[in-house]
Specification:
The structure holds two protein chains of two kinds. By secondary structure, chain A is of the alpha+beta class. Helices cover 22% and strands 25% of the residues of chain A. In chain A, strands 7, 15, 16, 19, 26, 27 and 28 form a seven-stranded mixed beta sheet that branches. In chain A, strands 9, 10, 11, 13 and 14 form a five-stranded antiparallel beta sheet that branches. In chain A, strands 21-20-17-18-31 form a five-stranded antiparallel beta sheet, with no helix packed on it. In chain A, helix 4 crosses helix 8, helix 7 packs antiparallel against helix 8 and helix 8 packs antiparallel against helix 15. In chain A, 51% of the residues are buried. In chain B, strands 3, 4, 7, 8 and 9 form a five-stranded antiparallel beta sheet that branches. Chain B is an alpha+beta fold. The longest helix of chain B is centred in the last third of the chain and has 16 residues. Classes of the chains: A alpha+beta, B alpha+beta. Chains A and B meet through helix 1, helix 2, strand 2, helix 10 and helix 11 of A and helix 1, strand 9, helix 2, helix 3 and helix 5 of B.
Chain lengths: 756, 210
């Protein structure tokens, strides 16, 4: 046990912390999460529904309690993955799939160490993917399997604190996983070259008491195998000490914009090894390491000499106390990229023989060193390996988030509809949207969505000022701006739908989601709908596919009957109580309803009401809410057995924006003591004498025809497309209800039929 | 297990000589006044050579002649994990409009108990940054923020380089005012990030003279 306790923690090194941090930062930027500069990736990122990765407003706690942005979490994960004994599991030799083990040919203590380390360590892909049955040392909480669980929980857990915690773990775990991809771009990690050193053991052994016989023995054993990685410390020193820029650019992220690549690395393990195309494959077969100079491939070319003077000319950092008249012998090789193909690439400095220290700070004139590696071989390693470390890391992020679906509304154009009458639902969440219908289409390149489960999540911030009268909406007297918006995002989650292979197709297919554990509330703002699938995607059995749609917030439409008054269109152009100028009776409107349709080519206006009630008496009103896309919709009003002309409306957004604050597309309008967004009303004019006779008129469109006796007017407020948030809002005249007896919000009639 | 169970990390006593050095413009040779200099005696530890703490953190600001001075320190007992690296001290120099300056020792590991700096009496040459404000923010994010965060993450050394943090804070706001979209962490961001372990250091940073 002594030997194990002393020596186990001394075997491994990878790129050092700061190198991993920077590799991961760039990888995140270039991945789908960063969106890079490519519009196609930006669109995809929008569908993931994630905030900008450097957003100050969207920070989550990492496993050490720090509050970090998404980018920082990924960087932190890349740093933390080296904590403690975890790096025992950062090795993988793609030739035989082995984990870290000690080769008896290299280490005198191999007989003991080989057995014990073999017991303790797990190969990098097995450790990372959580696929090893072996007891993990240390316990693994950040595997690929954990990543999926964290992500799913971050999407669907209704407890906001747990959701945020899981979000933090999601991106930290992603950082930890891509750390492994980066380790696979370090030759020693993929050629089973155990580069041995540990600063704490160094520390202990440097100051050991002669009385500590057991420790002295352990340190003696340690001294035999101590062999710190010059490659890694040199890589770090270039940036950290000398401020040099590492060559990180030049290898476009895998799973980026080339759709053909998504058919090559179809499983996560393939990012490590896949017939020569994984990161470990590339590094292992193309590069040498200090402890594996005699291991082919790569095949080396004939030795040649180069003068120290030419090598050190302009070198940063400068060479040190060396003899510039000397020569260094190199052997070249060729580098083959089996993933992207192309001609073999030259590596003039694959191996080196020299009397100089690896950093060329010093030399031993009479030394007879073996073939080895040094700062000049490292430079070529960097040129080929570091850009791929970034490209594969970004590619792994892209792979994880590759699943894609397109959300479109059903044929009728709206996602949901809900009665807003307050009877039995004073709490706005109780009378919200209990059902959402949408069409989903699999848009994942080259991969089918198979069996699994499908959920719909509605994410929103509550407008805490909401009132049934809508006085607490934007423009209402009780609206208090940003203070109305509750800061914490809330979610509701639909019932799960079991999905069979082929259910989510490559053509839009209708799905219906029920919210039995809480409706989408009427007072939601910043609302997005997020379809979440977990199940088989392509060759991967358990993947997560997310598609997010920014929909309208609850929009409110009302039907009003104001024929308890009469409008004097021939006189003072005001409403008057009955009787007035010969008008004494109000008018009842039968079978009031509304249907919707999309304005896109190929779609028709509604032929039947979607929501209806049998009778709207004078002085009564009814209101409903709907969710739709932010595109134009056609609303059709039905009454008395007829359908009215089309009414084009533009659903509104109600969201927080850093520039404009908490605002809605349009302000609500006051009328008869309540506040309205879309409303249509029946009113009577002095000249109307007959009881019935329909002649719809669209005031908003400026139609002037008024040949009928009863006029149906449509009040509509809409965004002028070219006028940015200025809304068309008729006022005065027949829209002026100020003299009327106020409505009470609690008197809203219930809609009796909802065909949705 | 006996080895792990005893005083595994030990306590050692370190000291360092005073340092005087200079900062100049690499092109003109003119002294750069008001450059913030950060000196770190980094401690590395464990399997992966992780930074786990700092034996000492000091800062200075260059005078009109571009000169800065750091006093001698120690003997100071250093306990816990880690070894002071032989690079120590690592210098980072920040001056708005310039690429960062960096420097360290080049000597054998581990650091001696009494340390000197190869840079004592030497001159750091800073080059003007040739790029857009966005590129500058990205550059500083690449080469500076990792060290700054490490100083906060590993031992909460924020109070030891308040002037440097203030200079970074002002630079971040200056770049933001110029329309830079790349986030360069300001004092508030850093303070929020590490508040759980370091407390709200922003109030001290904002009160510091850059």
């Amino acid at each position: 046990m002594l030997v194990i306790a002393t020596v186990l923690p001394t075997i491994v090194h990878a790129y050092e912390q700061e190198t991993h941090r920077e590799l991961s930062r760039i990888a995140a930027n270039e991945s789908i999460l960063g969106g890079a500069a490519l519009p196609v990736m930006q669109d995809k990122r929008d569908r993931l529904g994630l905030p900008p990765i450097t957003s100050n407003q969207d920070r989550y706690v990492n496993s050490k309690g720090d509050l970090r942005s998404i980018s920082e979490l990924i960087q932190d994960g890349a740093i933390f993955e080296d904590d403690g004994l975890r790096s025992l599991n950062h090795f993988f030799d793609p030739r035989d799939g082995s984990a870290l083990h000690i080769d008896p040919a290299h280490y005198p203590l191999a007989g003991i160490l080989g057995v014990e380390i073999g017991k303790a360590s797990t190969s990098s892909p097995d450790w990372t993917l959580g696929t090893s049955a072996k007891t993990q040392i240390p316990a693994q909480e950040f595997s690929y399997l954990d990543l999926k669980n964290y992500y799913f929980d971050a999407l669907t857990n209704r407890d906001g604190n747990k959701r945020k915690k899981s979000a933090g773990r999601t991106f930290e775990t992603m950082g930890r996983i891509i750390h492994h991809i980066q380790d696979m771009a370090q030759p020693q990690h993929v050629r089973n070259d155990a580069h041995v050193s540990d600063r704490d053991v160094d520390n202990y052994c440097s100051d050991i008491s002669p009385d500590d016989q057991l420790g002295t023995l352990a340190c003696a054993a340690y001294a035999l195998i101590r062999n710190p990685s010059v490659y890694e410390s040199w890589t770090l020193d270039l940036t950290n000490t000398y401020g040099q820029k590492l060559p990180l650019d030049g290898y476009a992220p895998i799973y980026g914009t080339d759709p053909t690549e998504s058919s090559i690395l179809t499983l996560p393990r393939m990012f490590w090894t896949n017939g020569g195309k994984g990161m470990a494959d590339f590094t292992s077969t193309n590069f040498l390491s200090d402890g594996t100079m005699d291991q082919s491939p790569p095949d080396l070319g004939a030795p040649y000499e180069q003068t120290v003077a030419s090598l050190c000319n302009g070198a940063i950092p400068a060479c040190g106390n060396v003899d510039f008249s000397r020569t260094v012998t190199f052997r070249p090789s060729t580098v083959i990229d089996k993933f992207r193909g192309g001609a073999p690439m030259p590596n003039p400095y694959a191996a080196s023989w020299s009397i100089f220290t690896p950093d060329f700070a010093d030399y031993s004139p009479n030394a007879n060193p073996p073939w080895t590696v040094n700062r000049f071989t490292f430079a070529y390693d960097h040129v080929y390996l570091l850009p791929r470390a970034v490209g594969y890391s970004a590619g792994f992020i892209n792979y994880f988030f590759r699943g894609d679906m397109e959300i479109t509304p059903p044929y009728e154009g709206i996602y949901a509809i809900a009665d807003t009458n307050t009877q039995g639902c004073q709490n706005p969440s109780a009378c919200g949207f209990g059902k959402v219908r949408m069409r989903l289409k699999n848009t994942t390149p080259n991969e089918d969505i198979g069996a699994g489960k499908l959920l719909l999540v509605a994410r929103y911030h509550v407008n805490d000022c909401y009132e049934a009268s809508l006085a607490g909406e934007y423009g209402g007297p009780d609206f208090k701006g940003n203070g109305c918006r509750l800061p914490d995002e809330e979610i509701v989650v639909s019932e799960q739908i079991d999905i069979a292979q082929g259910d989510i197709k490559s053509v839009p297919t209708l799905f219906e989601f029920e919210f039995k554990n809480g409706n989408i509330p009427l007072n939601s703002s910043d609302l997005v709908l997020q379809a979440v699938f977990r199940g088989k995607l392509g060759a991967e059995d358990d993947a997560i596919v997310v598609s997010t749609k920014n929909v309208s917030e609850p929009n409110f439409m009302a039907a009003l009957n104001v024929t308890d008054y009469v409008y004097d269109d021939t006189g003072d152009r005001q409403y008057h109580q009955l009787p007035y100028k010969g008008v004494s009776a109000p008018i009842y409107v039968n079978n009031v309803g509304v249907g919707f349709g999309q304005t896109l080519p190929g779609y028709k206006d509604a032929t039947a009401p979607m929501i209806a009630l049998p009778l709207l008496r004078a002085g009564e009103f009814a209101r409903f809410a709907f969710l739709a896309d932010l595109n134009d919709l056609t609303a059709t009003v039905f009454h008395d057995g007829i359908s009215d002309s089309d009414w084009t409306i533009q659903p509104e957004e109600f969201a927080f924006d850093e520039k404009d604050g908490y605002t809605r597309s349009c302000k609500v309008l006051e009328g008869r003591g309540l506040y309205w967004e879309y409303f249509f009303f029946w009113h009577r004019e002095v000249g109307d004498t007959a009881a019935r006779g329909m002649d719809p008129k669209s005031v908003a469109d400026g139609a002037a025809a008024r040949s009928g006796r009863l006029v149906t007017s449509f009040g509509k407020r809409r965004i002028q497309p070219k006028a940015s948030h200025t809304c068309f809002a008729p006022s005065g005249g027949e829209y002026d209800f100020s003299g009327m007896t106020p409505f009470d919000a609690s008197q809203a009639l219930p809609w009796t039929t909802v065909n949705f | 297990m006996a080895v792990v169970g005893c005083d595994w990390y030990g306590t050692r006593s370190f000291s360092a000589d005073a340092i005087t050095a200079y900062v100049v413009d690499a092109d003109t040779g003119a002294p750069i006044a008001g450059a913030n200099v950060l000196a770190m005696w980094v401690m590395k530890s464990g399997l992966e050579n992780n930074t786990t703490n700092y034996a000492m953190v000091m800062e200075a600001v260059t005078d009109a002649n571009g000169k800065f001075e750091l006093p001698a320190w120690g003997p100071k007992n250093v306990s816990g994990r880690g070894q002071i690296t032989a690079l120590a001290p690592l210098f980072i120099i920040l001056k708005s409009g310039y690429s960062q300056g960096r420097g360290a020792n080049r000597s054998a590991e581990p650091a001696p108990f009494h340390m000197t700096s190869d840079w004592n009496g030497k001159t750091f040459k800073l080059t003007r940054f040739d790029g857009t404000p966005d590129q500058y923010a990205d550059y500083l994010g690449t080469y500076l923020i990792g060290d700054v965060e490490s100083l906060l993450r590993n031992g909460c050394h924020g109070m030891s380089f308040l002037r440097f943090l203030r200079a970074l804070d002002l630079l971040s706001h200056e770049l933001k005012a110029r329309g830079v979209r790349t986030l360069l962490a300001d004092a508030q961001h850093l303070s929020d990030s590490f508040a759980s372990r370091c407390g709200p250091i922003v109030q001290y940073v904002r009160g510091a003279k850059p």
